[in-house]
């Protein structure tokens, strides 16, 4: 089956729009089909790098590579020299696809280049490879070493997008609005390829702004994808922006991902609009694993239940499955299903290390309640704090801190302590005058159990974040 059946139908329906530039399915079919035909002339096993700006050309480039059966390697336009050198050396692309006029950095400038021209003509779409063929190689953020190239087969993309059709009741009538970057899973695979798989439409905002978002949701938009930093900005503006509140009120679904959305922001958005934001959970290696369902109970702070066809389990430190669903017992999330990646490119050692008899070790820690809803408490490496014999998840404490009127942003880490093993450290961006340290400690002890209270509070002007809005905790205190 084709990844994008609507391209074969080639209707005049709008497929994708960036600002005042748009392509219908008929236009996208001919433009992408023409480029795909030329990419098929590359030698076998060739890959192409895509200079992944937030443009119509990036969408065409990736769709063309998928039609041609040539693995695409999206490259972050803000990438650093060392990281770019590693990705180019590791993936060895035969060609770089870029928008006309784009200035490429030195690491890509030496590759053969093909500009993406949006010219149309009569073309027959080429036959597509089988489901196990590699579709994309997406590089991880490289927090614990050089970025690893995650090889995603075609079946991972198709199965994930089809199971989200079920979870979010996603149809060809939906118009998705987002302003996410196009070099990673969230913005590119879910945000651009998802609507095209459904035969729907996508409007990319270019640069995210609440005014642009409101205009599109008050118009044709029915769905929004965003990250917590976007929803935090929305929550702060809703009280004095009735147009924004009305726009969100009229959306069919609002979906947040890439990091945990603080419960406080959930509550502010619901109070102003009546909407309850859906959270889901995925990774580069697994695409999507769980989600709150559009037709299910919304539980703020949870990432919902396993998606159709995806097996999810929690395991303890001994690797044994945790059977209890008490909402308190913390375990590592492990996943198996058709959504999984094939391998880390050129890293058989790293690939073997993350699999346990077919289950992928995510490194994420969570609890599970009686209804099967997962609540992420953080990464095993950075967010699970072992203090005084207790296992403490950083996320729960961060949510509690954000309920304090004097806290704009919060991150929680652990650091060595001679008595406790590790002590809880709170990193606080104040909202106005700096709140007293003891006041924050007492606030957490009152909302949670006392052993979860911070032992140290450190004030910062801003939290270090990556392009997807995730806090880079390893950079705190560096």
Characteristics of this structure?
478 residues, alpha/beta, 14 helices, 5-stranded antiparallel sheet, GMP Synthetase, Chain A, domain 3
Topology:
Blueprint: H1 5-9, E1 14-18, E2 21-24, H2 25-39, E3 48-51, H3 56-68, E4 72-75, H4 81-91, E5 95-98, H5 106-109, E6 113-115, E7 134-139, E8 149-153, H6 154-168, E9 175-178, H7 185-198, E10 201-204, H8 210-218, E11 223-226, H9 228-237, H10 242-250, E12 253-256, H11 263-273, E13 278-283, E14 287-291, E15 305-306, E16 311-315, E17 331-336, E18 343-344, H12 348-353, E19 355-356, E20 359-368, E21 374-379, E22 384-387, E23 390-393, H13 394-402, E24 407-417, E25 421-430, H14 437-447, E26 456-459
Parallel strand pairs: 1-10, 3-4, 3-5, 5-6, 9-10, 9-11, 11-12, 12-13, 25-26
Antiparallel strand pairs: 1-2, 7-8, 8-18, 13-14, 14-15, 16-17, 17-20, 19-20, 20-21, 22-23, 24-25
Helix pairs in contact: 2-3, 6-7, 8-10, 9-11
């Amino acid at each position: 089956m084709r990844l994008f059946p609507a391209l074969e139908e080639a209707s005049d329906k709008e497929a994708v729009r960036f600002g005042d530039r748009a392509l219908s399915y008929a236009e996208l079919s001919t433009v992408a089909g023409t480029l795909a035909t030329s990419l098929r002339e590359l030698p076998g096993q060739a890959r192409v790098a895509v200079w992944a700006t937030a443009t119509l050309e990036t969408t065409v480039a990736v769709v063309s590579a998928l039609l041609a059966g040539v693995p695409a390697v999206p490259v972050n336009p803000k990438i650093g020299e060392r990281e770019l050198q590693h990705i180019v050396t590791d993936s060895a692309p035969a060609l770089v696809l870029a928008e006309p006029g784009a200035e490429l950095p030195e690491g890509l400038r030496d590759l053969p280049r093909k500009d993406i021209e949006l010219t149309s003509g009569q073309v027959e779409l080429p036959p597509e490879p089988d489901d196990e063929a590699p579709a994309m190689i997406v590089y991880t953020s490289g927090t614990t070493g050089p970025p690893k190239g995650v090889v995603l087969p075609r079946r991972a993309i198709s199965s994930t997008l089809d199971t989200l059709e079920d979870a979010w009741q996603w149809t060809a009538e939906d118009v998705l609005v987002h302003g996410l970057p196009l070099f990673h899973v969230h913005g590119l695979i879910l945000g651009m390829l998802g609507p095209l798989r459904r035969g729907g439409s996508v409007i990319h905002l270019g640069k995210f702004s609440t005014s642009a978002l409101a205009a599109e949701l008050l118009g044709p938009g029915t769905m929004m994808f965003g990250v917590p930093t976007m929803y935090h900005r929305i929550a702060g503006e809703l009280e004095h922006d009735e147009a924004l509140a009305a726009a969100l009120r009229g959306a069919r679904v609002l979906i947040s991902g890439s990091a945990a959305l603080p419960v406080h922001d959930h509550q502010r958005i619901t109070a102003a609009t009546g909407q309850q934001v859906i959270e889901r959970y995925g990774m580069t290696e697994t695409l999507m694993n769980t989600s709150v369902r559009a037709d299910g109970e919304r539980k703020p702070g949870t990432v919902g239940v396993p998606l159709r066809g995806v097996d999810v389990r929690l395991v303890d430190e001994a690797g044994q499955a945790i059977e209890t669903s008490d909402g308190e017992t913390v375990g590592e999330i492990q996943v198996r299903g058709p959504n999984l990646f094939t391998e880390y490119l050129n890293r058989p050692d790293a690939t073997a290390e993350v699999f346990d008899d077919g289950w992928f070790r995510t490194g994420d820690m969570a609890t599970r309640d009686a209804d099967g809803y997962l609540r992420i408490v953080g990464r095993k490496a950075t967010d699970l704090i072992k203090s005084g014999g207790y296992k403490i998840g950083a996320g729960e404490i961060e949510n509690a801190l954000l309920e304090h009127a004097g806290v704009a942003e919060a991150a929680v880490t652990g650091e060595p302590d001679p008595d406790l093993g590790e002590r809880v450290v709170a990193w606080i961006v104040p909202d106005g005058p700096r709140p007293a340290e003891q006041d924050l400690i007492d606030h957490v002890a009152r909302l949670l159990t006392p052993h979860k209270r911070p032992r140290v509070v450190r004030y910062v002007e801003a939290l270090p974040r990556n392009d997807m809005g995730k806090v880079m905790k390893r950079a705190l205190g560096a």
